[in-house]
User: Fold these one by one.
Assistant:
Number 1:
Amino acid sequence: MKQAFLGLDCGTSNIKCLAVDESGRQLAVASRFHATISERSGWMEQDPVSWLPKVIETISECNAAIPDYKVKAIALSGHMSSPVFLNHQIEPVYNCMTVGDARCEAEAVELLEQFGELFKASSGNKPMACFVPAKILWFKKHRPELYNQTAHVVMAKDYIRYHLTGSLNTDPTDAGNILLYDYSAGEWNYELIDLLQIKREIFPPVVDSMAQTGILLPQIAERCGLGEDVAVFCGGADMACSHIGTASFEKQILAVTLSTSGQVCTTVDNITDAVYGKLTLHPGVLPHNFYAMGSVFSGGLALNWFYELLSGKKELSSADYDEMLSLSYASEQYMPSKSEILFLPFLSGSGSPYFRSTDRAAFVGISTASNREAMFAAVIEGVCFHIQENIEAFYDLGCSFQRVHLSGGGTKNRQWIQVLSDVTGLEIDVLECPDASTIGAAYIALAGSKGIDIREIARQSLRVIDQVLPRTDRTECYRKLFPLYKKLYTSMSEIERELAALREKV
């Protein structure tokens, strides 16, 4: 019987399962939406327990779609810098704080002031609010009774993998993103952990991303309709797996993800002082391979938010996404910036290159003539301007790009891609598989099972289904508008900091 290999991804908005055959060709995909909880401004949480039924559902659906194949192995991917706090019974004691959660800004400032040089020397990164150390310190300070119950801190994929295999560990890509792992030594940086007065024992064993960590538990296999002895491989952080899925582990390839959030990544040797704190540095799945990343916290989130505001809906159906796509094309008449509206897309604070939790979204230029198409055009352009800010940071790093590989749910919206090409002035290759993290995990399962070079699988399996070229006249127009966008950000950021200070006094 033919063999299939599954990639399972716990993303910021969906659980996805994707199957490939022995050549790396995609066979089937299944997904389930899961909610983000935001009880307060800047808080973005998820209930880890809510992931588990959707994991079973997506694996089952994916398996049912390939009746002529036997699933041989599974590997996992999951959203990074999102700690899951577990007690001794491996039960969550608190919700998972996702990467966009900005509540721990005070702890991040304290870490930077006291230990910034140590973090820079060990990881090349600032200990910002998006990273795990500040979140652990917030948790320790504000939820001390739950911190005392905490026996383990793992990432999303690790918690799910425990429920699949009974084995609890992590890998160098997620450990490296915690900023408390010494990648060169291959062990936790206990000296820094002790300085932060964090419990040593909460950090799990670290195994290679390509390592088999167990087999699927019999009761899980039965529920999913799978056979016996399904191997489970560790996998990696979502963007590390995406690095494999987009075949962007080689230099001069810029990988852009358009999803709820967005990412801009490329392989680098190091981060220089010119962009230190603007971009972040992360270990990849391949040994001694590092990638720099620009983080866009509000990508598709901004488009979804505006549509929800118009429609009054909180959960969007496939029909709503079709309507949003129609709205995108209708907004074309107001581009480039013919609406005279600018939009700052910082609905949950800003990621790269600012990393300010106090930043907020704003429309400027609204009048009685403004309509929903004009405002939606401004939202799309604002997100693309923010992505351009990230790309400029890579230029400051001395990077040049031969190709742009685009993945993510936003690949279904060609109007958005066209505006991105116009704003950046870059030719964009749209990849056949939008689920780069999920297919990257599937390649780990395939390569681990067969002993194949994962780079060859990724190169041979890559398919480009569309190439979008920038329109020169619009690129020139956007180059004139982009400085106004940055000037608007500078002004609004100062106002938002003052507003945040006032809120603290009320």
Number 2:
Amino acid sequence: MTIREELERRQHTMLSPYACMDENTRGREREEPQCDIRPVFQRDRDRILHSKAFRRLKNKTQVFLTPKGDHYRTRLSHTLEVSQNARTIAKALRLNEDLVEAIALGHDLGHTPFGHAGEHVLDELCEGGFSHNEQSVRVVERLEKGGEGLNLTWEVRDGIRNHQTALMPSTLEGRIVRLSDKIAYINHDIDDAIRGKIMVEEDIPKEYREVLGNSTKERLDTLVHNIIINSMDKNDICMSPEVAKAMTGLRQFMFDNLYRGSAAKVEEAKAKELLRKLFYFYMEQPQLMPEQFTRMIDAGTHQDRVVCDYIAGMTDQYAIAKFNEYFVPLAWQVN
């Protein structure tokens, strides 16, 4: 018996009957030999962690565009906080922690430079629309490894695709990540907004603080515990009605007071215009994109989709550098 087979056997005694067992995966798009050490979801986690798209998350905006300070969240630190929350919940519920971690680490791989501002621009420009969750799946299926993709299991791709509020993953592990994503960004974005002097703790409506807590630490503790307590020994991931209502209300408060029109967003119009110019530039001169992307056009993929693939993969700094290269005279550029 291999180490992998022994680990799979242990899952039947250690994990909840509601857990998604590695040996029950629906499999990969392309069959491949099993690893003798790692079960399939651990292997997927490792593939995501070693991908170029994952490394680029460190230089992509979470909320604050190129913030002046080392402690503001980036898309990478957001991803790690989602993973930490999700693994805590999965461990307590005896669900598959490897599957949870793989989904969490991969859920934002397709996010654009400049956060949701970039996502909105590409959604306007691409004929078939653009959403970061679908793009994250496209990254792991088609764009990574020079066009080969990572060949992840169905369950990981399902969790990545369906992590947004309006969607629902098929596994409990995916549902944990879906909630953990919201728990992470609501709380760390409040923390960053307070650090940036955009709001103070007392700005949060009292009705939400009374239920969830009066600090980021208290709110995280309340939300994680509430999910665990209300999901224990159930074939579902859920919260109590009171806490769920408070979290939904707090999320809407953040949209109204931080994500739209706040001081954190004053530069978004410039970022959007920058990406529009890059899009039209590459539509006119696709040969200036890397060979991987021109090959996709030659193979029949619509050019606007390929241009979005390329731009979506850029970090904030790389997009700015390309804009300067194409549109700003050398004499005007700041060294």
Number 3:
Amino acid sequence: MIKYLGSKRLLVPHIVAAVRAVPEARTVLDLFSGTARVGHALKRAAFGVTANDHNAYAATLARCYVEADAREVGETAARLIRDLTALPPRPGYFTATFCERARYFQPKNGARIDAMREQIAAWALPPALEAVLLVSLMEAADRVDSTTGLQMAYLKQWAPRAYADIELRLPAVLPGPGLALAREAEDAAATPCDVAYLDPPYNQHSYRGNYHIWETLVRWDAPAVYGVACKRADCRTYRSPFNSRPGIGPALERVISAVRAPHLIVSFNNEGYLSRAELERMLATRGHVTVRELAYKRYVGAQIGIYNPEGRRVGRVSHLRNKELLYFVSPDAATAERMCAAAG
């Protein structure tokens, strides 16, 4: 899956174990699905999963990894990926914007991305099948980019992987049903389920801004861009309350209130805008609350250090580890404790 700020890859086993600890739980709602790692793992564990994210690229990841049924799309997707791989390069908007005006990808790969994305659009495929192909292209592009993992900027010197030829692979689509939504979290929260998993943005980092290239690759709308990073113009105007210190509390309270599930799991970071005490107060309106703290590596920017616009390292990163907090909520105290214990 793509490199992603806030990815819950290391937390997935803990989350799945906690859901399994809920008696007779069958269905799970992932309200802020991001890469769909959590939804994918829960589907693999035989839960009925609904994954939601308002960003187009994230909703597409969910449609591929949660909604698509490998028994229905796998063979056709594999054949179409072979057809896409055989296309000659054809430079267009993507190459001009992200390979020439900016330097995220080598032009040779940008021209192939342009050709393959145009062909996917021309095929006008059913949504789940199209999502599998788009994710294949997104992940292939991610493997040959020249960034630290975020699309706020590109590296001053080409990353070694950027010289490789882009290569499509069939995503790890699972058999069985699922559902992907593309709604604001408060609207999607009304989806009935046994367990709701919430992993909201927790600070100023905007996922649409950090992954604007994937948003454009999926929408394929050739937007106006601005700045050295060539961000979509709508990154200037869209503001999520979850990226705002004064906005996140009321927004999250509304979502928690709207959830139609008896049991909740909430993932939050100790460097987020809300304190542990504030989260516990909000969640206590839904039942008994238990908390598990897990040590976690900080985001990629902290790992590589702080650099000025000229590319020189400046300052010092204060720390490289933080804490991920998993909150378990249930009307029944014993169930909340069981979820927490299972998460280990």
